[in-house]
Amino acid sequence: LGETLMNSYESTIMGKALFAMMKMLAPTRVLKRVTANLRNANNFSEGTAKELGPTHYEVWTNECHGNPNYLGAVVFGALHRSGCKDLKVKVLTFDGHAATFDIAWS
After folding, report:
1. Does residue 3 register a pLDDT over 90?
2. Is the alpha carbon torsion for 21, 5, 70, 63 positive or negative?
C-alpha cells in the first residue's frame, strides 16, 4: 500500500517535482526530510533518525496508525527514488502505535 501511494503520488505534478528534487539530494537528506514530515503532518506525530553508520539509520516514530509496514514502504519508496542501492527497511519494534525501523543501503 505504501509503495502504491508513492507510485500514485509520482504521477501528479507535485509528485513529479518532488521526486525530481529527491534524485538530486543525498539519501541522508531525504531521510531527515521524512522524519521532519512526520513531525509536521499533525500535532501529535513525532519522528527521529539516529545515524548508526554512513548508510545505516534507526528511525523511530511515535505513531504509524497500526501499520508499520505501510510507513516502512513509504520510507522505502522515498529512499529508493533518491538512488539508494540494496535498500533494506525492517521493522525492529512495534507496540501498536510507535515503531522503530532499521534502514540500511549501500
Report:
1. no
2. positive
H runs (alpha helix) in the chain? 2-10, 13-24, 27-40, 68-81
Share of the chain above pLDDT 70, in %: 85
CB of 61 within 8 A of CB of 98?
yes
Q: Is 0.85 surpassed by the pTM of this model?
A: no
Burial class (CB in 10 A: 0-12, 13-18, 19+), 43: exposed
What does the pLDDT average to over 79-101?
A: 94
Distance of CA 5 to the CA centre of its chain: 12
Give the integer Cα–Cα distance in Å for 86 and 83: 10
Q: How many angstroms separate the CA atoms of 85 and 44, rounded?
A: 32
Cell numbers that stand for 96 in this block? 501498536
Q: What distance in Å separates the CA atoms of residue 83 and residue 27, rounded to the nearest whole number?
A: 7
